[in-house]
Amino acid sequence: MSWPHRMIRGLTMLLLVLAVGCAASDSDSSGSSSSALAPSASPSNTSKLTGTVTSLNGSCPNLSFTVNSVRVVTDGGTEFEKIACTGLRNGLSVEVKGSMINGALMAREIGVEEQEEQREVRVTGTISGLGGSCPNVSFAVAGQRGLTNAATRFDDVTCGGLQNGLRVEVRGVLQRDGTIVVTRVKREEQEEQREVKVKGTISGLGGSCPNLSFTVAGQRGLTNAATRFDDVTCSGLQNGLRVEVRGVLQPDGTMVVTRVKREDSH
Hints:
mainly beta
C-alpha cells in the first residue's frame, strides 16, 4: 500500500473514533439532564372531616367554625357543593376536605351531608346554660341542647330577650350528635306565678354575671339581667355568703331570682 493510501486510511479511522466518542458523551449528558428535571412526588396531606357545624364566625368567603372539635377555616379558594357559602349555619351536617395548616383545617371542599332522617322534636321548660350571641345562641331546655341560627323563628320573645330561667317551647330538628337545630322558640305563659323567699348560705355557685346559678337552703336559683342585688353585687356572690333570695318558682322546681339581699352573719 502506498504512502497516500495509508494516510487516508489513518485519517478515516481517527474520524470514526471521534464520532463514536461524541455520541456517547451526548447520551450521558442527555440522561443526566433528564434525571435532574424529573419531578419528585410529594405525599398527600389531604384530610376529610364529617360532622356538625358549631361556633360559626366570620363572613364569606372567610369563615371559621368547628366540626368535631376541629377548627375549620375557608377562603376564596374553597369550593361548596349543594350549598352556598352564605348557607352555612350552626347545626348543619357537612363533609369537609382540606389540609391541616397551623392547627386548623384549611377547607378546599365543603359539601352538605344528606340527612338520614329529619326527626322533628318539641321540648318545653326553662332555659339554662345560655351562651353565644344572636342569631347563633345555644342553650338547654329540659336537658336538651339547642342551637339557633338566622332562620330561627321567635314568638312572644326576641332572640335578644332569651335568658336563663325563661320558660319556653322549643321546636327543631334533632341532629345525629343529639343537639337540636332550633326552628322555633315560643315564650310560654307562666301557669302559676308562685313567689318564694329563702334564706341561707350560697353553695354550688356557677355561671357568669348576670346569668348565675346557685343553691340556698336546698332551693336552686337562677339570676338574670333583671335580678336586683341589695348590699351585694352580682360579682360579689360567693359560696358561703349568707343571703335572702326572692323569686318565682318554676314548674321544674328552679327559682328565677328577682332579688338577692346580703344578710348579716350571726
